[in-house]
TrEMBL record, chain A:
PROSITE patterns, per database record: WD_REPEATS_2
Top-rank lineage group of the source organism: Eukaryota
Region forming the signal peptide: none
Name the UniProt record assigns to this protein: WD repeat domain 73
Source organism per UniProt: Oncorhynchus kisutch
Assigned keywords, A-Z: WD repeat
GO biological process, one term: cytoplasmic microtubule organization
A GO cellular-component term linked to this record: cytosol
WD repeat copies, ranges: 304-337
InterPro entries tied to this protein: WD40/YVTN_repeat-like_dom_sf (IPR015943), WD40_repeat_dom_sf (IPR036322), WD40_rpt (IPR001680), Wdr73 (IPR042795)
UniProtKB/TrEMBL annotation, chain B:
Cofactor field: Zn(2+)
Stretches assigned to the Metallo-beta-lactamase domain: 16-233
Designated name of the protein: Integrator complex subunit 11
Family: Belongs to the metallo-beta-lactamase superfamily. RNA-metabolizing metallo-beta-lactamase-like family. INTS11 subfamily.
A Pfam family of this chain: Lactamase_B_6
Keywords carried by this UniProt record: Cytoplasm, Hydrolase, Metal-binding, Nucleus, Zinc
GO cellular component, one term: nucleus
Domain Beta-Casp: 245-363
InterPro entries: Beta_Casp, INTS11-like_MBL-fold, IntS11_C, MBL, Metallo-B-lactamas, RibonucZ/Hydroxyglut_hydro, RMMBL
Length: 346, 618
């Protein structure tokens, strides 16, 4: 199960091997009201649009400013483009396929929607084949062209044309779609055999590089935080105390809270989502305890099951502080928050 | 073609006012007869003119079936049976029969006495209507007449709610009414066997909803109640007499016990006894757990919940009160509301849908000031004119809405389809254009058709019923003697016979027997065909050559060269002749009977090709 969240709705999709559904669910009104208001008519998700996919959906991203999502099945480099539909019909239809020019066989791709300008999407399976494609025409607008076969684990725009690409080995590349030959490499200095992914927090209204924080998460449960001023030197880092329940690195995810400062969420090692406050973290590697752990996905039918539950993805609510949506292998979607002990009264 | 017709009645696509007409095997059945609570004019009743423009409905309907006691499923029943006119049987389960008249009378009182309606059914009409009711037991097949039978299944949702199977011959329809696929604290979940109906009719109001977990919903409810009570406030929960109220009572009772809460919980007078009485009477309709514990302790004999008295509303300190009616439009719940509305420490929790126009609806929409007619207790009086006295109520208490209604959502509908395995699916009360995804989903997952008729629109489903027929022993023996694979339901075998339909029996007999029985003579059909052939031999020689040719081609067939100058292949006769002017142009005469038609036409085609040259005449 994977999903992506945009202001009023959430799009979820399954990733079993054959037919899957893509559903656009209206967020329950309860998430739009303040705690104090008291008037809350609805707390259920409503299916607004739905569609069918022949293959699995590994990656699902909404393109801002459009009613489109793009998906990838994790087995080849094609992107499926879907139209979420309007008022008159509730079926999500596939409208096209975007291809990666210099694709490398059977790997899935990572996707980053363009943030400004005409709808476009950045995608690639390894550093060398990263390409920016215009959504409507399918025309490639930019490609990296550097022969770096490192596998990609995360891809994200930090401004209209600058993007970050995190390779599986932890190296962080900074590219600019206006400048195809320019590419900056910032190695993570990690150990061999460790898989990395990244989470980026950007402030589009500010051009100050310190406002863009990058957190890299390793499969050894380390988090390294830097910002755009100098991606090589970690500002601070932490060793997380996690007992991995799954050997797959596919679900590792680290994200920054949009409505809070210095707040990170980590998931994908087991059936829990952990929240960390990085304000107390230091440049030297030390172990830190989480601020909060969501264990809900391990509760199945009144039984506490630690073995099979794995959280596949999570996302922060864009405006409600301390509110996270997470999904797990059993198809459950949880919307939860935690009480901030410091400010709670009673 | 045999077909089943389904038409939902009504004038609009709102929630409520369930009334569906089904025509099956020549029988007409009305499923539910609900009232729409939002309208005050004729739009609140289903449009019966579809059945007949004037006059009574009795001759047009074989029976009426009511699924459960909610007014949007039975509210228009007295109007239909007594004011429009229907004298046939009305089927419903025992609890529905017991509770229906109480709700109808309650509703009638409010509509007529309080609102002063005139074109409404009377108390006597309700009584007369209920006299026509025939009660149903679960899983019991009831013969409405010698062709139509019905059977009720457990639907959950509320006490006595049923799903109904309607069967005529081998065609059947299942109507779900409102149902719930997840059990709750006092009712079980809906269940049906793999009855494989031709059509499964289901409500689809919540079909596009993915419900929040019951746990979260209950926890939120309990949290709100707890918070209010802890700060000394009062909680008012307006409920209908029977239905979700019992569920919430059990929930609160369990919570109070666990948390050792001291604040009192009250239940409107009259309500407790009535509800308890019915739940005790119909204990078999509640869920397993309640039945099991009933011997030691009656779940509805509450420790922490007591009967309410009017004067308690003025008591200081926290309390929780369940009061009727549910939409705050009159009665005790409204009285209590007027007393508690001005204090922001208090809370009101609306546990269900409120129809537009009711106070419940207004406060849920955030209205903070209400204009009401002054009936009894007054909080503030604003006299604006002599002789007119109304009160303006400020709503300061916290207003919460928690939907506890037990309806099937998208997942539930799919589950039910999996259980019953219908051949076709029909969804009612949805928004047609927004249901295409669900329609696709059902069609793809189960490869069945899914229909969504609008109110007043008829859906016709072609069925494929099997007709049972008696076969004569002779014919059966003859077929068995033919050999071949044993009969298999998955591989139908074609056979020949004659079907005799006499009176009401259908018999399959051999043609000879049929002729004998009917006193008819058998006609013999013979075909004759002339084939021209060029052959330089004499006629007899040509015939011999034909004989040789056929013997080599048709191995395994009886071929004779007879002394009378003919060749016989089975029963087919072949003669050769020629005219004196053209002795080499032979005319072959072939003659065969109908039974040998295939062989006959094969022979004529074969001989048209001519004789091979290397043949010698033996």
């Amino acid at each position: 199960m994977t999903f992506c969240l945009y202001p009023t709705a959430i799009c979820v999709a399954g990733y079993s091997s054959d037919k899957n559904e893509i559903l656009e669910l209206l967020l329950p009104l309860k998430l739009f009201t303040d705690d104090n208001q008291g008037l809350c008519a609805e707390r259920d998700f409503k299916v607004v649009h739905g569609g069918f996919s022949d293959g699995s959906i590994h990656c699902l991203k909404h393109i801002p400013g459009t009613r489109c999502v793009v998906t990838n099945d994790g087995f080849n480099s094609n992107l499926q483009v879907w139209d979420l539909g309007g008022e008159d019909c509730d079926v999500i239809k596939r409208t096209g396929v975007l291809q990666l020019k210099s694709a490398s066989s059977d790997k899935g791709v990572k996707i980053a929607p363009g943030l400004t300008g005409d709808p476009c999407v950045l995608h690639g399976s390894q550093i060398s084949d990263i390409q920016l494609t215009e959504l409507t025409s399918g025309k490639p607008l930019y490609s990296l062209g550097k022969d770096i076969p490192d596998l990609l684990s995360s891809l994200q725009f930090v401004s209209g044309s600058v993007f970050l690409a995190c390779a599986c080995n932890g190296d962080l590349y900074v590219g600019d779609t206006r400048n195809p030959s320019g590419l900056q490499n910032n190695p993570a200095g990690g150990r061999e055999g460790v898989h990395w992914c990244m989470g980026v927090k950007t402030d589009l209204s500010s051009s100050d590089p310190s406002s863009c924080s990058v957190a890299r998460l390793s499969s050894a449960c380390q988090v390294v935080v830097s910002d755009l001023r100098d991606l090589r030197a970690p500002l601070f880092q932490a060793q997380l105390h996690v007992q991995r329940k799954t050997t797959s690195d596919d679900f590792m995810k680290v994200t920054w809270a949009p409505a809070l400062d210095n707040c990170l969420a980590v998931s994908g090692f087991d059936g829990m989502v952990r929240i960390y406050d990085t304000a107390s973290w230091r440049p030297e590697l030390m172990e830190f305890q989480p601020l909060f752990i969501h264990r809900g996905h391990m509760m199945s039918d009144d039984q506490f099951d630690t073995s099979s539950a794995v959280v596949t993805t999570h996302v922060w609510h864009p405006s409600r502080p301390r509110t996270v949506l997470s999904a797990a292998v059993d198809g459950s979607v949880h919307v939860w928050d935690w009480v901030d002990k410091a400010t709670a009264s009673c | 073609m045999p077909e089943i017709k389904v038409t939902p009645l009504g004038a609009g696509q709102d929630v409520g006012r369930s009334c569906i007409l089904v025509s099956i095997g020549g029988k007409n059945i009305m499923l539910d007869c609900g009232m729409h609570m939002g309208f005050n004019d004729d739009r609140r009743f289903p449009d019966f003119s579809y059945i007949t423009q004037q006059g009574r409905l009795t001759e047009f309907l074989d029976c009426v079936i009511i699924s459960h006691f909610h007014l949007d499923h039975c509210g228009a029943l007295p109007y239909m049976s007594e004011m429009v006119g229907y004298d046939g049987p009305i089927y419903m389960t025992h609890p529905t029969k017991a509770i229906c008249p109480i709700l109808l009378e309650d509703f009638r009182k409010i509509t007529v006495d309080k609102k002063g309606e005139t074109n409404f059914f009377t108390s006597q009409m309700i009584k007369d209507c209920m006299k026509k009711v025939v009660p149903l037991n679960l899983h019991q097949t009831v013969q409405v007449d010698d062709e139509l039978e019905i059977k009720a299944y457990y639907a959950g949702h509320v006490l006595g709610a049923a799903m109904v199977q309607i069967k005529v011959g081998s065609e059947s329809v299942v109507y779900t009414g409102d149902y719930n696929m997840t059990p709750d604290r006092h009712l079980g979940a809906a269940w049906i066997d793999k009855c494989r109906p031709d059509i499964l009719i289901s409500e689809s109001t919540y079909a596009t909803t993915i419900r929040d977990s019951k746990r979260c919903r209950e926890r939120d409810f309990l949290k709100k109640v707890h918070e209010t009570v802890e700060r000394g406030g009062k909680v008012l929960i307006p409920v209908f007499a029977l239905g979700r109220a019992q569920e919430l009572c059990i929930l609160l009772e369990t919570f109070w016990e666990r948390m050792n809460m001291k604040a009192p919980i009250y239940f409107s007078t009259g309500l407790t006894e009535k509800a308890n009485h019915y739940y005790k009477l119909f204990i078999t309709w509640t869920n397993q757990k309640i039945r099991k514990t009933f011997v030691q302790r009656n779940m509805f004999e509450f420790k922490h919940i007591k009967a309410f008295d009017r004067s308690y509303a003025d008591n200081p300190g926290p309390m929780v009160v369940f009061a009727t009616p549910g939409m705050l439009h009159a009665g005790q719940s409204l009285q209590i509301f007027k007393k508690w509305a001005g204090n922001e420490k208090n809370m009101i929790i609306m546990p269900g849908y409120c129809v537009q126009g009711t106070i419940g609806h207004k406060i849920l929409n955030g209205q903070k000031k209400l204009e009401m007619e002054n009936r009894q207790t007054v909080i503030e009086i604003e006299r604006c004119e002599p002789g007119c006295c109304h009160l303006s109520l400020e709503v300061k208490l916290q207003v919460e809405y928690m939907s506890f209604s037990a309806h099937a959502d998208a997942k539930g509908i799919m589950q039910l389809i999996r259980m019953a395995e219908p051949r076709n699916m029909l969804l009612v009360h949805g928004e047609a254009k927004k249901m295409e995804f669900l329609k696709d989903k059902i069609e793809q997952e189960f490869t069945i058709n899914c229909f969504m008729p609008a109110n007043g629109e008829t859906t016709t489903v072609i069925t494929n019923p099997s007709v049972p027929v008696d076969i004569s022993l002779n014919l059966l023996k003859r077929e068995m003697a033919l050999g071949g694979p044993l009969p298999d339901p998955k591989k139908p075998r074609t056979m020949h016979g004659t079907l005799i339909m006499k009176d009401n029996s259908l018999r399959l007999v051999s043609p000879e027997q049929a002729l004998k029985e009917l006193g008819l003579n058998e006609h013999q059909l013979r075909f004759t065909c002339r084939v021209q052939l060029q052959d330089p031999h004499s006629d007899p020689d040509t015939l011999s050559r034909i004989y040789t040719h056929l013997k080599s081609v048709l191995k395994g067939y009886t071929i004779q060269h007879l002394p009378d100058g003919t060749v016989m292949v089975e029963s087919i006769v072949i003669k050769v002749s020629s005219s004196a002017e053209e002795p080499n142009t032979k005319v072959l005469l072939l003659s065969w009977s109908y039974q040998d038609e295939d062989l006959g036409s094969f022979l004529s085609t074969l001989l048209k090709k001519g004789l091979p040259s290397g043949l010698s005449s033996m």
